[in-house]
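Q: My labmate handed me this sequence with no annotations at all. I'd like to see what the chain might look like in three dimensions before we decide whether it's worth expressing. Could you predict it?
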Amino acid sequence: MASHSTDREVALVSVDTNSADDSKGIAFGLSGNLFLPVIASGVVSIVLVTILLWSQAFGIVGSVVFGALPFALTLLLVTTFFQGKPPHYAGDWFESLTSDGCFVRHSYGQPMHPLEKALKQVARRKSRKN
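A: Here is what I predict for the chain of 130 residues:
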């Protein structure tokens, strides 16, 4: 018969894994598919620099600086609003800028409740009498 020893305790071991369900992966230091817009804007920047140099619209430095703007702005956007942030962070941030925290988009455009109107009128009449 097999005997079961109750004298020793078994410690549970917890191991963090990167299963495919939990991790979206990392490429070029950006998590998930965030590297795709950066690479696409890099290609756009290269094409733009090439066109500007070919057309001689700006000098060499001006063409490179102007052509690098799509790449730089996309990288700034991705690292500011998406990299390491919770889902929907960018949408929530822009919503906080455009709304005042009410359920409606612009509470100042909503009609005033009739009782509020009456209370303001009473307050105005009292202030005129004083």
